[in-house]
Every structure is written in structure tokens, then in C-alpha cells.
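Explain this one:

_____
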Amino acid sequence: MDASVLEKLEGRIASLERRVKGDLADQDQSLVERLTIIDRKINSAIQDEDNLGILKRTDALHTLLDPSLEHNIGVDSCTKLALVEANMDRIEEAKQLLEQMESSRKVLESAHIKTVPTYSGKLASLSEAQAEQVTQAEALTRQTMNMFETYNRMMSDIDRKFAVWDQRLAAAEEMLKAKEGAA
């Protein structure tokens, strides 16, 4: 072969390797070398007589995993009935949900529900108004709590002052009684 043809082939192989392996694969081993190693391993596995039994079991496994096998193997009516009875609560629940959905279909298909998107602007303004009102209510709650605290402090101070004045008045009354009794 011509050297330029070999270079073109090597370039195409290198391009294919870059596409298959990408940037993440190691650059030490080419794709062709790796495929050759895999081919040798497969051939040696097939040639080994012990592995032939495993390969036969693999074929059996493939037939068991085939989805069409369910249709080929007939399930008797007793088994089907047992499956239905075992899942009866799920079936009943699904039936009730379907009936509920069917009964509410008229409401869901009504003109009122279909016009809901036209009210999105009004809903947005109402949501903003509600958020402002919640903020105002929280501020009023804080103000009210502060007023109650102030009221409680004032009442406590007045209560203490009345107690002091009551003691002074009682002491003055005793002094008057003592003076009148002495006179």
C-alpha cells in the first residue's frame, strides 16, 4: 500500500477513536488495541468448555426475561382471580377516584373554570393587597403589644405609689389617734 493511504487510514482511525473515547478516556491505549484485547478475552472464554454451560444458561435466562413469555405461558383463572382479590382495595380506591373525577368533570369543563386565566391580573393585585394587609396587621400587633407593656408598667408604678401613700396615710392616722389619746 501507498504511504499516503496508510496515513489517511490512521487519521480516520484516530478520528473515530476521539469520537468514541472522547476527552475522558486514557490516551495510553488506542481503541483498536482495546477491541483486540476484548476480542481475545471473548474467544478464550468461548473456547473454555466450562464456560459453555454458563452461555447455555444465559440463553435460558434471556428466554425467561423475554416479555412475550408471559403470553406464551398461560396463567390459569384461579391465579388471575387470586391476583384480583389481593389487589381489591387498590381497585376499589381507583374506582372511587375515577367516579369522583367523572362527577367533577362538569365543574372542570364549566365556563367559570375556563375564564380563570382572565382573572390572573385581579388575583395578583389581591395577593399584593393581602400581603400589605398582613404586614400592617403585624405592625399593629407589635404596637398593641408595646402599648400593653407600657400600660402594665404604668399600672404597676401607680399600684406601688398607692401602696406607699396608703402606708403614709395609715402612719399619719395613727399619729393623730395617738395625739388625741394623749390629749
Q: What stands out?
A: The mean pLDDT is 80. Residues 115-182 form one domain. The chain has two domains: 3-111, 115-182. The chain has nine helices and no strands.
